[in-house]
Specification:
By secondary structure, this protein is an alpha/beta fold. It has two domains: about 120 residues, 3-Layer(aba) Sandwich (Rossmann fold); about 90 residues, Orthogonal Bundle (Arc Repressor Mutant, subunit A), CATH 1.10.10.10.
């Protein structure tokens, strides 16, 4: 599957190497080197995904991503960075990144991640299955969700997390359960990525003035009120 990609990287050597690798997978790659150019390109052209360096001149990658999301640009974004500390990862995810990859990057892995994100965003329209909790409705087959009749713009992980809450409305889900069911881990990593994604999901559910449906259960996990 060929994708139209925006690569935002200020290291010219790395950008050239990475773009050559991605073109080797039959992708089309547009390279820009700073945050301002990234925002202009993302707003002008239709990209299937963005590979976004965190450390950029003029406007840093996190700020670029925040502005993209505020402007309604919803294409998948993989944040690419040399900063691998937990705080940086959480900041990137909370800003709206769909994935976070630490340099050096293996091209085959990056290609696989791009395909996974793109597949997750393609909606299937043949089935009509839905699950419901209160005024929240989700269609797993279509990868779509609504609250009070208004569509929610969710990433792959946010949608999977929402479905898990909807299926288990009024039941407490521990962090370990969410790690296993949403991320596929059979252990609990020493990070708070669950908390970061739950926070993002809560914000999106309340975007149009709705009440906060997801409550934290101290020391345990979270519960969605149906």
């Amino acid at each position: 599957m060929s994708l139209n990609l925006l690569l935002v990287e200020d290291d010219a050597t790395l950008a050239a190497m990475l773009s050559d690798d991605l073109r080797g997978y039959d992708h089309r790659v547009t390279i820009v080197s700073d945050g301002g150019e990234a925002l202009a390109a993302a707003g002008r052209d239709q990209f299937d995904a963005v590979v976004l360096d965190r450390m950029l001149p003029s406007i840093d990658g996190v700020s670029v991503l925040q502005r993209m999301r505020r402007e309604g640009l919803t294409m998948p974004v993989i944040m690419l960075t040399a900063l691998g500390r937990l705080a940086e990862k959480v900041e990137g995810l909370e800003a709206g990144a769909d994935d976070y990859v630490v340099k050096p990057v293996d091209a085959a892995e990056l290609n696989a991640r791009l395909h996974a994100l793109h597949r997750a965003r393609q909606w299937i329209t043949t089935d009509t299955d839905t699950i419901r909790a209160g005024d929240v409705v989700a269609s797993p087959s279509q990868h779509r969700a609504w609250r009070a009749g208004k569509a929610l713009d969710l990433s792959k992980t946010e949608f999977s997390l929402l479905c898990e809450f909807v299926r288990n409305a009024d039941a407490v889900l521990t962090r370990a359960m969410l790690y296993e069911r949403v991320w596929g881990f059979d252990f609990e990593p020493t990070t708070n990525v669950v908390d970061a994604f739950v926070r993002r999901l809560r914000i999106k559910l309340m975007a149009d003035g709705g009440s906060d449906l997801i409550a934290a259960v101290r020391g345990v996990g979270y519960v969605m009120r149906g």
